[in-house]
Amino acid sequence: QVQLVESGGGLAQPGGSLRLSCAASGFPFSSHGMSWARQAPGRGLEFVSGISLEGRDRYYAESVKGRFTISRDNAKNMLYLQMDRLVPEDTAMYYCAKDLPTHGDSWSDYGGRGQGTQVTVSS
Q1: Among candidates 68, 65, 116, 119, which has minimal Cα distance to 92?
Q2: Does residue 115 contact residue 5 with C-beta atoms inside 8 Å?
Q3: For residue 113, what is the DSSP state?
Q4: Helix, strand, coil percentages for the chain (3-state, nearest 5)
Q5: d(Cα 113, Cα 36) in Å, to the nearest integer?
Q6: Residue 51 and residue 71 in contact, taking contact as beta carbons nearer than 8 Å
Q7: Closest by CA position to 44, among listed 107, 114, 109
Q8: Chain segment 48-90, per-residue pLDDT in tens
Q9: Which residues 6+ apart lie within 8 Å of 101 measured at CB?
Q10: What confidence category does residue 92 fall into, taking pLDDT thresholds of 50, 70 and 90?
């Protein structure tokens, strides 16, 4: 059973930083690409970032490129998202997801997801 548990969300000011973490279990973590996706109220699912099996390849949505950094620790079965220079448009529920998506705008593109952690960027 795939289990993904996110943590690290909260309230940040514009220009601030947050670091999201995801603890994975129930599947061979090091054998799967991993992703972060987000959904804001009234908006569709958006792929944020993805990382290959050993972390050599990293992918970012244009809206977060240069501000967010994805990483993973296969020894600890952990996925991370460092979010810097946050803007109000980053406000959303952030989800850790198993696998790298084809498009990323549907949950059917992923092999599982967590419950999410809320990120709110506001002054």
Answers
A1: 119
A2: yes
A3: B
A4: 5, 45, 45
A5: 9
A6: yes
A7: 107
A8: 999 999 999 999 999 999 999 999 999 999 999 999 999 999 9
A9: 35, 37, 47, 50, 109, 110
A10: very high
